[in-house]
């Protein structure tokens, strides 16, 4: 059976982002970009399922600007077999991405679709759930363990206060949490091999999907700054300040 | 305009974060209704009816809601969604799991983790790990929203007298089934609602060393938290994690011990009223957000602090 993974190109997680002074957005010019960390975990999990003989093929999909093809090459260097690039310069919101992915899933007919739980740029945490709803499939979000057995996925999820385990008949949607796995380093030979793997390109219009944004961003601003604190010399001074100045103990 | 709040509960108690969500719902203008979908959840419905500012409580009581499965709860919300202008849930593991399903079925965008209501169709929400605030306007006819609890005060849990109405339960979807649950037991306050939080990071060195934070947490009646580094190192359970991808807290006092202060961690705690940092590295980024910092060995400072607090 086939696995499909969705990957997003985002600003590298180590970058300290800068808000544009005119409030129109975040400055992404000349900023290091990379594969969203949760999506990296998703690709790794699909590749591990393939290595375990549970699935035969891993297809990676990315939606957005031309450079998303680099993100797909990274996914293929981890071990995805081929890539599908949805070519658009439109501002894609999660609902639009879910609709694009649904259209591709209708063509590809995967048995399991793995996404990251959230992208570290918009911090939405929606796409996987929306996709499951559009397809009418079951969902297991925030996964920390995935077992495929007897035509179903048994998934342990991270929830507030601990873990819970669900069983889903396939096909199903899984979104990854941090502790699902440790993604492998991509090696140079695998990067070279990834360049030769097939990468198809498609436009939203070919898929019959309207990607018009539903949310209008009025402005992007800096969060309020905290005023500079003080370094205290000893514990006695700290407790005095907490009692008298901050009045929190 | 009427707003529907999806109650988070464990079939016996209404979770506190529901109260913050009610406040956000009230700010959207109009009446506030609460939907309680659960199994044997009568006590929760009673508690919801007492919440100040709530006009009506809808109860769907059936076995298929016992474990909060997203497929079933989302269908139940859709079954009652009819005339609501806003549908809100807490931005907890539960709300984040369920609500995007509802939004997609209604063919509307979801607005995640709002921290402020500017107008009934305009909201503020943090992006890029809290390093920027986006003000967004929804053009959809129904606003589907998850609410960051720390961004809103809790509605009073007493004083209301809402009518309780039973609604027909939707059938089990059969798309997922519950296998089991493993919850960490703790006598301490819940992390997201605690007035004081004591957190440890990689600098703690080991899981055993977290014990030195316990007397401090006991003294302050604090919840205990951790950075991702401490969780990944296996020092403490993952539900202690404070940060962009863990819990978001905003207590009166946050004490960060042996935490360097990575962007991801700051996203989870920088709205705390007072932040204290204890770290041996004077260059640690945590000092840039701390109100009070002590540069020193945590294994000396923490016991001394407990002693000084008396």
UniProtKB/TrEMBL annotation, chain A:
Domain of life: Bacteria
Pfam families noted in UniProt: ETF (PF01012)
Electron transport among keywords: yes
Alphabetical list of Gene3D superfamilies matching this protein: HUPs
Record keyword Transport present: yes
Electron transfer flavoprotein alpha/beta-subunit N-terminal domain ranges (all copies): 23-211
Keywords: Electron transport, Transport
Family in the record: Belongs to the ETF beta-subunit/FixA family.
Protein name according to UniProt: Electron transfer flavoprotein subunit beta
Automatic annotation (TrEMBL), chain B:
Annotated ranges, domain Electron transfer flavoprotein alpha/beta-subunit N-terminal: 3-182
InterPro entries: DHS-like_NAD/FAD-binding_dom, ETF_a/b_N, ETF_a/FixB, ETF_alpha_N, ETF_asu_C, ETF_asu_C_CS, Rossmann-like_a/b/a_fold
UniProt cross-references to SUPFAM superfamilies, sorted A to Z: Adenine nucleotide alpha hydrolases-like (SSF52402), DHS-like NAD/FAD-binding domain (SSF52467)
CDD domains reported in the protein's UniProt record: ETF_alpha
Domain of life per record: Bacteria
SMART domains, A to Z: ETF (SM00893)
Keyword field: Electron transport, FAD, Flavoprotein, Transport
Family: Belongs to the ETF alpha-subunit/FixB family.
Name this protein carries in UniProt: FAD-binding protein
Species assigned in the record: Telluria mixta
């Amino acid at each position: 059976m086939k696995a499909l993974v969705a990957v997003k190109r985002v600003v590298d997680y180590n970058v300290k982002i800068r808000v544009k002074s005119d409030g129109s957005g975040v400055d992404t010019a000349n900023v290091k970009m990379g594969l969203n960390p949760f999506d990296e975990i998703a690709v790794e999990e699909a590749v591990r399922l393939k290595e375990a003989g549970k699935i035969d093929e891993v297809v990676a999909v990315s939606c957005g600007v031309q450079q998303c093809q680099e993100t797909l090459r990274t996914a293929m260097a981890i071990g995805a077999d081929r890539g599908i690039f949805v070519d658009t310069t439109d501002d894609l919101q999660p609902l639009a991405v879910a609709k694009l992915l649904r259209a591709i899933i209708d063509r590809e007919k995967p048995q399991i679709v793995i996404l990251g739980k959230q992208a570290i740029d918009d911090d939405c945490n929606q796409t996987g759930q929306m996709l499951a709803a559009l397809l009418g499939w079951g969902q297991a979000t925030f996964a920390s363990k995935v077992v495929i057995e007897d035509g179903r996925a048994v998934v342990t999820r991270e929830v507030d206060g601990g873990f819970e385990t669900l069983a889903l008949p396939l096909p199903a949607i899984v979104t990854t949490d941090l502790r699902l796995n440790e993604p492998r380093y991509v090696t140079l030979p695998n990067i070279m091999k990834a360049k030769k793997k097939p990468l198809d390109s498609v436009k939203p219009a070919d898929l019959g999907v309207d990607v018009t944004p539903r949310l209008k961003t009025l402005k992007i601003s800096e969060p309020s700054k905290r005023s500079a604190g003080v370094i205290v010399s000893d514990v006695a001074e700290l407790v005095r300040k907490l009692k008298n100045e901050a009045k929190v103990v | 305009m009427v707003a529907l709040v999806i109650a988070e509960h464990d079939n016996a108690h209404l979770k506190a974060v529901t109260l913050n969500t009610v406040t956000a719902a009230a700010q959207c203008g109009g009446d506030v209704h609460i939907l309680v979908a659960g199994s044997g959840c009568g006590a929760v419905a009673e508690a919801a009816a007492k919440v100040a500012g709530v006009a009506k409580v809808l109860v769907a009581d059936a076995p298929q809601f016992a474990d909060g499965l997203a497929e079933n709860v989302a269908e139940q919300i859709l079954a009652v969604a009819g005339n609501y202008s806003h549908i809100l849930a807490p931005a907890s593991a539960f709300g984040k799991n369920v609500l995007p399903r509802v939004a997609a079925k209604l063919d509307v965008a979801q607005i995640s983790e709002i921290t402020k209501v500017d107008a009934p169709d305009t909201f503020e929400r943090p992006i890029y790990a809290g390093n920027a605030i986006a003000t967004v306007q929804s053009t959809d006819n129904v606003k589907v929203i998850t609410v960051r609890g720390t961004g809103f005060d809790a509605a009073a849990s007493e004083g209301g007298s809402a009518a309780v109405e039973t609604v027909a339960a939707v059938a089990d979807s059969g798309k997922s089934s519950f296998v089991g649950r493993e919850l960490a037991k703790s006598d301490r306050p819940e992390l997201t609602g605690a007035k004081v939080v004591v957190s440890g990071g990689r600098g703690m060195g080991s899981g055993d060393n977290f014990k030195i934070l316990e007397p401090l947490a006991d003294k302050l009646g604090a919840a205990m938290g951790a950075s991702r580094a401490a969780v990944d190192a296996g020092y403490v359970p993952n539900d202690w994690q404070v940060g962009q991808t863990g819990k978001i807290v905003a207590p009166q006092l946050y004490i960060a011990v042996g935490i360097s202060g990575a962007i991801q961690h700051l996203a989870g705690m920088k709205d705390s009223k007072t932040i204290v940092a204890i770290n041996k590295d004077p260059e640690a980024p945590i000092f840039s957000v701390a109100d009070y910092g002590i540069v020193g060995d945590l294994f000396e400072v923490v016991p001394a602090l407990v002693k000084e607090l008396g």
